Structures are given as structure tokens and as C-alpha cells.
Amino acid sequence: MALRMKASMFVGLFLLSLAWKAWAKVQVNMEDRVEVFLGDTAQITCMFTVSDSPDNVIIQWYMITKTNVRLRIYYGNSTMQVVDRGGQFTDKISVNGMGNSSEVVLTIRDVKLEDELEFICHVNGMSVGSKEGRTMLRVFASPDRPIITGEESGISVSNENPSKMGSCEAKNGYPRPNITWYRDQSSLQNTPGEVSVVTLVTKVSSGLYTVQSDLHLNVVKEDKDSFFYCEVSYLVPGGTKMTESNKINITVYYPTTSLDVWVESPKGSVKEGDTVEVHCRADGNPQPPFTFMHNMEELKSEPNVLVLKDVTRQSNGNITCTALDLDTYEETLGQTELFVDYLDPAVLIPKDTHVMAQGEELMATCNALSSLPTHTVWFKKGKKVAEGHTLTLKDAVFDMAGTYVCVVKVPSLEGLETTGSLRVFVQGRPEIKKSADPVQEVSPEKTQKLSCHARGYPTPVITWSSSDKSQVLKLSQRETEDEVLSVVSVKVTSDITAYCNASNEHGTVSVSFSLKAIVQTTSSALSTTVTTPLVPVTVVAPVTVTTVTPVTPPKRVKKEGSGVVIAVIIICILLLAILGSVLYFLYKKGKLPCGRSGKQDLTKPNKGGIVVEMKSDNTEEAVLLSVNGDKKPPSDQGDKYMYVQK
Predict the structure, then answer these.
(1) Whether the model pTM is above 0.70
(2) Measuring CA to CA, how many Å separate 274 from each of 129, 279, 307, 409?
(3) φ, ψ dihedrals at 14, nearest 5°
(4) What are 71-93's pLDDT values in tens digits?
(5) Per DSSP, what are the bridge partners of residue 615?
(6) Is the pLDDT of residue 432 over 80?
């Protein structure tokens, strides 16, 4: 019985021990992978729990090499941390975070491509056991932007096999990037006989990848307008990115099937005298050689341009362009029609000249033959006088005579115009243009120019005459078909009347010019000089002051006399009488000595003396007054002065 009880107790203790061991354990949680860019810092987290909270938990980190070898790189507990020496992570890793029910983080700095390995976190709970977790470190490098190049020589649609049309290259990517080709917005996949994509992958010494992709294609004519580009897709932490290259257009060669022929210049309608450029263009590539024919005649031309200079209405017709395919030797034709608008010279009725009598009526017409509607305008001396094909002149007068110009234009085509002229003469007795000043004043012995302007048809003949048979000198005469301008000069010695006579077969007219001779007369005045010595202050010599009476300028007086001139003469005589009275009064008072020269002899003492000299403007003689007031002739006066004391 006792033995049975002991056995039952042993079994119970054993089962209790097994249950404890089943509950007491270590748990470790880690991410499957950690992704970083090349050169960045990677952090691998190891989360663990220990059920029995032992005093010491040991953490160890391992890596799995490329050859599948397990190497420890770190171990430590709450009291110590040790990085294994001699490995690739010796100087670039660190671990932080220790304790129960906690986590530790392995930090790897400056990640390299060779660091892309599997890392193991081993947790040793001592009495409760150990456990480990695994994380894969993935490293990424984004490639450079792809570079695309196209085939420069061009591709023919006649090639039987796909031709290389471009190359795309992406450098320095990790992992290896992928390249996809696109035409416009559609991707191109390998298709036997149509599309072939050849890819070349190169791993450089740094471990990065360079991918080159060549596109081979059977091109069609429509590809001349297409754009091609490549797209590079590559992995990055947490996803995938794509980068597109520049777009290129390739040169496609294809045969000609049709031609386009047109008149490039001038734009719109063509008129006579223009230079015409006819262009020809094929729908093939490259452009084939062209041949131009005009009305079945082959013409020389530039590669695709035909130039026709100074075209006329005879240039109308068909222009044909022929293209020759140098591969198949097939000809392709294209054509256009050339029509040249024209305007013939103006036709006037009556033409050139027309003579009409005064009071008559004229109806003239002007038009020109044209391929387009015309419009006519009449001008005289640059001024518009009528509009339309007909010019009507009623009740003719001399003012209607002259040259009428008709201008015929094509309104719908600029530059297409012609002109004609009609000279109209109006018959009649001459007319003389009135002079602005028929009466003119002229100084004697001078010549005066006279002009006479007469008109009429036939052209008037101008003759000159004068009232006193004076000589009339003809200077110039300018004639037109119905007008004449005569200029003469007349020497005036007295009043004269000159006559201009204009005559033709219809009569004679005259006009007179009255020339008045003007006589110049000069009124004389006395010039009086008064010499008065000043009282000396610091000098003995006397100071002389001279006063001169202004002389009246000569006046022009008409020969036949005038009341105004007579009044002026009377006033001058009165002034002379007053002046003589003043001088006589001074003489009687004893204050006026008489002398000849009117100058004081400075060698003789002369104190308080006054010398008066009177001279006439019309004579060299001097009139001196004697002491008695009698007038002496110049011979009796001598050269001495008479001094009169105050």
C-alpha cells in the first residue's frame, strides 16, 4: 500500500514537471524582410518574450553567407555586449535594447550590396530554453534615366526582316531593371516576323546592373508619324517604379503612290507679268526626281519647283509633274491648271486729242478688254473728275480744256490696271488773265518786268506795244498747246502805258499796264553847330560841346505835284525863318560871333565866346553873319572867326 502511494506521488511530480516545462518557454518574432536603398542604414528588429524572467538572457546575432555558412556577428546580455571581430560587420553594426519581454534592434550602417544577407536573432533563456528568428535584408539601387537612340540612316518598308530601329540603355540599377518598348501608347512585345526585342544584361564590378535593349521592327508607312520610347521598371523598398525615356521619331522610306502639284506663288489669281512658282511633292520618302511639262513641252526646273517668268495669257494650260521611282522604275503623274488673268491697253473714243468749240458737248468713253470685270475712273491734273467708262463735258469753256486720264482697274486683282489719256482743246477768242496790279509806280530810268498770260485755241500770238513808242524788250515766252506766257521789260522815263495783245483766228484781246514815273526830291535843312566852353574846375583848357540838328531825309514827290509835298515845303521854309530869327536875336544881343569854319582856335584865349556856323546841305559855301547882321559873300569873310563877348 505504501509502495503504491509512493509510486502515485512520483508520477504526480513527474506530470507537474512536464506541465511546467510546457508552459515555461521563449518566443521570438521578426519581419520576414527589411528593404533599404544602397548606402542607407538598415534596422532589423528582434522581438522576444521569456516566460520565466531569468536573471540573464543571452542574445546572439548570426548571418548566413552567400555560401550558406552561419557566422556569429554579435552576442550580449544585460551586462555586456560584444561584436565579433574580423567580420564584414565589425565596424558598422550596433545593437540596442535588452531585457525580458522586450526587443533588440540590429543597426547596419552604410548598407552595401554584399550586405544583402539573411540575419538570425538567437534568444537563449537559459533554464526556459532558447529560440531564434530570421530576417532577410534586401538592398535596392535605382538605375539612371534610360538613354534612347534611334536609327539615323532610316528604315525601308520594303525590308523583309525586322530592322533595328533603336536602342535603350539603363545603367546602375539593382536588382536588374526591366525595359519595355512602346510605339505611341502601345507596348511592343516579341512577335515573330514583326517585332523582336533583344536584351543584354551586364553586371559591373560594383555589383550594379546595366541593361541594354534593342528593338527590331518591320516598319510600315504609318510609322513615319509614330513616336517610340522605352520604359524602365525597377524595384524600390516597398514597391516598383517606372521611368520613361525621351521619345524619338524614325525615318521611314516608302514608295510614291501619288503626287501633289500646286501654284505656290503668287497666292490667289495670276496676272500677266507675274513670276509663277509651281511646286510638286510626292507622298513617298525620299522624294523622287521630278520632271515638269507645260502644254506637252518639257521645261527645266529645280528639284521640285518650276519657275515661269513674265507669264502671259499664252501661258494658260496644263502643267504636269512626273516622278520616277528609282527602285521600281515606275512613274507617277500629277497635274494642275494655270490660268493667267489679263487686261488689255485702254481704248479711248475719241482717242488722243479732240477739238471742240465753246458751248459744245463731248461724250468720251474709255474701257479695256479683260478676263475680269473692270472699273474706270477719270482724272484731270491728279483730281478725280468722273467715274465710269463714260466722260461727259457739256457747254464747253476754256476751263474744260486739258488732259483727261482714264484709269481702268480690275477690282478683284490688285496691280492689274491700265491708263489712257485724251487731250481736249476748246476753240475760241483768246482770254488774258487779269493782272493783280494794272497800275504800277516805277522810279525813272529803271526797267520794269511785265507778264501776260493768255489762253485759247489755236494758241494765241502775243505782241506788245507802248503809248510813247518806248522800246519793249522781250525776255521770255513759254507756250503750250493752248496757252502762252510772255514776259517783257520796259524802261521807264516818264508815265507810260504798255499793251499786251493776244490774237488767234477767232479774234484779238488786249490788256494795258499803266506805269507811273516817281520823281525823288530832297528837302534841305540847316546844320547848326554850337560851341560852348564849360567853366573850368581843375583844368584850364575849355571843354567843347557840339549839338547837331538832324537832317530831314529826302522825300519822293510825284512830278505833277501834290498837296502833301507843298505843305512839307512850306513847313521847312517856316522852320528856316524861325531859325534865322533866333540867330539874329542872339547877334543883336552881342552873343553870336561869326566865323567860317565853325571851330574855335585853341591857340587864342577865348573865354565866354560863342561861335555859330550855318551850312547848306546843297552847297559848299558857308553863310556868316557880320556884326551888323549883313550877309557877306564867302570871299569877304576870310578865314578868321568873329568873337562876341558876353
Answers:
(1) no
(2) 109, 16, 11, 17
(3) -65, -45
(4) 999 998 878 889 999 888 999 99
(5) 527, 622
(6) yes
Kindly tell me the burial class for residue 205, based on how many C-beta atoms sit within 10 Å of its own C-beta (0-12, 13-18, 19 or more): exposed
Q: How far apart are CA 380 and CA 405, in angstroms?
A: 6
Residues in a beta bridge with 305: 279
pLDDT in tens, 573-629: 999 999 888 888 887 776 665 544 444 443 344 444 433 333 334 333 333 333 334
Give exposure, 480-494, as e/b (b: 16+ Cβ within 10 Å). eebbbbbebebbbee
CA-to-CA dists, residue 192 to 151, 189, 366, 644, angstroms: 21, 10, 80, 154
**Can you point out the beta strands (E) in 312-416?**
317-324, 331-338, 340-341, 347-349, 352-357, 362-367, 375-380, 383-387, 390-393, 402-409
Helix, coil or strand: residue 452? strand
Q: Can you tell me which residue has the cell 512536464?
A: 18
Question: Which amino acid is it at 25?
Answer: K
Residue keyed to cell 507622298? 283
Q: Which three cell numbers stand for residue 311?
A: 507669264
Q: How far apart are CA 537 and CA 556, in angstroms?
A: 51
Q: Which residue has the cell 521598371?
A: 233
Q: Among residues 282, 167, 177, which one has the least CA distance to residue 228? A: 167
